[in-house]
Each structure stands twice: as structure tokens, then as C-alpha cells.
Inverse folding.
């Protein structure tokens, strides 16, 4: 196994662990800002994912927010009761459902999107713009390649 000078154990050089640990640390710091806004982490993920879309199927949304579909359905039920999202049913096939963000949902998430970007800037302050762009490009590539491979 190839080790770098800085790594002394398996997990210090294991991609899956490094990604999970980085995600956990960065997410935990931002997630502390959700509670005062009245949002749980699952609700934040849903609203942040839907805000720039015309809506998504439950399956696509579940994949994007990292939840199994039955769990997401329960989250969507609560969010619909709170007026943050709605369900749009297909005209030809009412089994086809798109989840859409409502104006109230946009209002709830708008300030948090700004805070999320500010938090991201703080987390990445030690990196150059080129390094940040490369990191994000590599992560998107990793996701795309692992999805198809």
C-alpha cells in the first residue's frame, strides 16, 4: 500500500474515510445554523436542492439528498404540511410526482443559502481560487465516474 509521509494509518490515506471526515466536519459547522431557522438537516438538503430546479421526482430528490425514498417521503410530508414544498402530479399519470419548492420554502432557505456560501468561503479560505475550482471539479468528476462505473 502506498503511504505518503503525512499518513501513518490506513484511514489517513483512504479516500472514502477522508471524504466522509471532511464532509462531516464542514457540514457539522454549518448545520449548527439550521436550528435557529427552524430547519432540520434533511429539510435543509431538500430546500437547497430544489431551490434552483423546476422540481424533481422523489427518486431523483432522494438520490440528491442522500436519503432512501421512504425516509424522504416522510420528510416531504412534513415539509408539505409546513408549506415549504408541494407535490405536482403528472397530467397523464398521477403516479408521477414532482416535488417543488413553494414561495414560502424559498423564503425560508434564501438567507441560509447566503450563510452556506459564507461558510464555504471560510472553510476554503486557505485555498486559492484555482485550487477550489480544481477540488470541486475533481469531486464532480468522481461522482460522475462512480455513478456510471
Amino acid at each position: 500500500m502506498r503511504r505518503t509521509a503525512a499518513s501513518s494509518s490506513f484511514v489517513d490515506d483512504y479516500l472514502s474515510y477522508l471524504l466522509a471526515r471532511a464532509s462531516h466536519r464542514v457540514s457539522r459547522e454549518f448545520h449548527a445554523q439550521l436550528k435557529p431557522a427552524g430547519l432540520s438537516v434533511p429539510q435543509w438538503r431538500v430546500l437547497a436542492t430544489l431551490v434552483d430546479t423546476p422540481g424533481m421526482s422523489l427518486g431523483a430528490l432522494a438520490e440528491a439528498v442522500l436519503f432512501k425514498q421512504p425516509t424522504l417521503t416522510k420528510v416531504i410530508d412534513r415539509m408539505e404540511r409546513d408549506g415549504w414544498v408541494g407535490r405536482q402530479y403528472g397530467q397523464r399519470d398521477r403516479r408521477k410526482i414532482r416535488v417543488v419548492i413553494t414561495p414560502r420554502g424559498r423564503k425560508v432557505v434564501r438567507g441560509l443559502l447566503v450563510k452556506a456560501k459564507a461558510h464555504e468561503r471560510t472553510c476554503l479560505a486557505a485555498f486559492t481560487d484555482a485550487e477550489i475550482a480544481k477540488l470541486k471539479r475533481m469531486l464532480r468528476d468522481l461522482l460522475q465516474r462512480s455513478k456510471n462505473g
